[in-house]
Amino acid sequence: MKKVRKYSIPLALVIAAASCGEAPQNATNPQSTTDPSAAIVPAPRINSLEISYEKFTLPNGLRVIVHEDRKAPIVSVGVWYHVGSKDEKPGRTGFAHLFEHLMFNGSENYNDEFFKPFELAGATGMNGTTWLDRTNYFETVPSNALDMALWMESDRMGHLLGAITQKKLDEQRGVVQNEKRQGQNQPYGKVWERMQKAIYPTGHPYSWTTIGSMEDLNSASLDDVHQWFKQYYGSANTVLVLAGDIDAKTAKEKVEKYFADIPAGPPLIKKKAWIAKREQSRREQMFDRVAQSRLYKVWNTPNLDHEDAGAIALAASVLGDGKNSRLYKRLVYKDQIATSINVGLHELELSSIFPIVANVKPGVALATVEAAIEEELQRFLAEGPSEEELARVNMSQYASYARNLEQVGGWSGKGVILARGELYLGNPNAYLEAMDKKQSISPQLVRAAAQKWLSSGDYNLEVHPFPEYSVSEATANRSKLPDTGEFPSVPFPELQTAELSNGLKVVLAERNSVPVVDMHLQFDAGYAADQGKKLGTSSYAMSMLKEGTAKLSALEISAKEEILGARISAGASIDSASVRLNALKSNLDNSMSLFADIVMQPAFSNEEIERKRARWIAGIQQEKTQPVQMALRNLPPLLYGSDHAYGVPLTGSGTEDSIQSLTRDDLVSYHKTWMRPDNATLVVVGDINLKELTQKLEQHFADWQAPKKSLPVKNLAQVSHPGKTRVYLIDKPGAEQSIIIGGLLAPSEKIPQREALHMMNDIFGGTFTARINMNLREDKHWAYGAYSFLTGAKGQQPLLVYAPVQTDKTSESLQELYKELQAYIGDSPASEEELQKIKDNRINELPGRFETIASVSGAISAMVTNERPLNYMQGYAEQIRDVNLDSIHALARDTMKVNKFTWVIVGDKSRIEQKIRDLDIGSVTEIEINEPSNTAISTTER
């Protein structure tokens, strides 16, 4: 047991005594007066405040502070756990406070309301509170009831879980949620939730409120209760303070009796300072049912044991504590533009919160109040406080503490001061010592700290009264939807064509609505060109085009784009690779020159290749951890086989091995082989005519010639369906849900019935109201969404069925998808109503579909890629209207081979495998993920 001596440090304070009376007139200037004189009178020395205590620690880690005060036969008991809302995790907020409520619902050996024996014993000041950094429980009892109090506190510390039932959890959950509603129902009641989220970065332990969110409270389970208790409510994470009619010897005997057998709890990770100072100002506005506008001006300032903490606390007091504070005198007393103002500094373990809060006087603009605050703040930052101001606020704090020392417990008595000091700073008298140290902080130090922490990074939240609105008498007929009438005809732009001397084909759609020209240069290449080569070559080569040319570096290209207002991009898809320029008409020549240089003269420098390589491989590694990408990397080789151009990862990124081995020669070879004028079409949309366009193209692409070597031919041969359904599992241990992706080869985008094919899919799974989404999402609630889609390809294209579902419903969801597929080609085919809905949507969306240059360019590019006639869109509406139900049924029967699907399911194998096997829909094979390629896939069949 450690005995702590009393200590006394002189407290030197000065207080001002201002004289009163009329000042004499200045003889030389009758209109000038002198200010009232202020005589500074030194105050007598005042002894430091002190609390005597003794401290000991039990073998189980429980720290005990004992203060003896015999003036009344009472003892204050305070139990402080070093856990608060900062120890929660996103998605589990509000749990510290919810648990505090549960601590009052009985323990294993006293399974009744906690207050009952205390009420009978005449306890006072009894409660529990939760804050960001801690949770505490306290009561003051007559000395004769101390054993009862210690028994009760130790019983819930060491013997709680057996008494916590689901009923009690649900009851207190409801109580806390009503407490939250009650708080939010008060004026300005939603401010702190908004503010904490705004002033701290995502994931910061202070970025959520102590009471938590409704959603997180709803998700709290009994398992969460047990885990929280076991992790944080051990004796080694606790400070017990006994203050009043007790001595240390007696206290030690009693504490050992009741608390020594309680486990210490596990080692804990203690969060350290994370001030998260902001440098930029930020402003938000909200409305509430309040009478006055209010301004919150907030900074993140140093945590409570930071070297600047004392100076910042003094700055807060000088600015906003009491009627003589600078802000009160200016805004409330002198200018009378605010009805109240204060600086409520919250000193915390990780970061303190420094808010200036002003209630704006009705009829005064909030901007007027803010300007006055800013003016006073800037004056303070420039001049700092005066000696008199510091003396005044120091004396005010001294007096407050002096009055608190009268009480042994309650909300602010000696027991609280000792507990806070020990819990946060390992020193029971830390707060009184800090108060003493403030006496020696100079005005210069306060000014320096204020300049450092308050000169930038302010968050400003305006809260305004919600206006009183009124509604008029209803006049609309709500019994039926209004008739939409005739939809306007929106003709697709007329397309003009040309061919340059080097063989480059050009398609132009003139659009003069804005002075912009969009050029989309596309090559018949894409991921399919990687077949037989290093996977990822197409995507990597296209990504390198802007990383430097023979003339320009990557940064110089970027700078030229910015100065010209141009946008240039490059990329690849399954069938094509493209480079795109979007240019201002006024800078078209210079923009086209840059565009041509990027297309024709990429440097493919080894330095830039290496700079990108590590990032690219990291991206592949990320794909191999993301369920959807895991499936899309492995499904195409399973559908097409190893020698087909489409039998490559559908992400186009390649593999770690292929990208690691990729060389400059590979990229140069790709560029020479595929990026040639006789393998390209340039789609142009915008403010230019065909004659001007061809002249500029001949000028800028004059040196671009097709090589003599003929183009390679991509293997897009027809692939047969597998003999039966196949299921491939990719194990993702601990996965929160399973990703189901089914693949089947469907007809090419080039077929005449292309629109009917897509409409057939839309009915089944291509829209929100399609069959499988209504089943798995709206009816079963097993998935956030379930869809099917055609990926688009010149050869056979994959029809994919996609459903991310909860793990325990994986096999059931797969079974439902099978039922829907079988019904669609069987006894429940597409209906006339379903088809008409899709038709109406496709036709009626036309007025807004081609509003932008980019949308027109995209439509033309799709025509080019899939070899459709260039007048395809002219009869589009009629083409949609002519699709009949028989053709939908026929396409569904011919396409949706239910028993030929290849399913890839990513999920926790240990939880889903057996039930999938029990469905008996086909072979079940586990894919061992390493490096999927277009030549081999490692599988383990069981």
TrEMBL record:
Task: Please report a single Pfam family linked to this protein.
Answer: Peptidase_M16_C
Ranges for the Peptidase M16 N-terminal domain? 63-198, 506-635
* One GO MF term attached to the UniProt entry: metal ion binding
Q: Keywords in UniProt for this one?
A: Signal
Q: Where are the transmembrane segments?
A: none
Record-linked InterPro entries: Metalloenz_LuxS/M16, MPP/UQCRC_Complex, Pept_M16_N, Peptidase_M16_C
Q: Which domain of life is it from?
A: Bacteria
Gene3D superfamilies per the record?
Metalloenzyme, LuxS/M16 peptidase-like (3.30.830.10)
Outline the extent of the Peptidase M16 C-terminal domain: 220-393, 661-841
Signal sequence range: 1-23
Q: What is this protein called?
A: Insulinase family protein
Q: Which organism is it from?
A: Microbulbifer okhotskensis
Q: Highest lineage ranks of the organism?
A: Bacteria, Pseudomonadati, Pseudomonadota, Gammaproteobacteria, Cellvibrionales
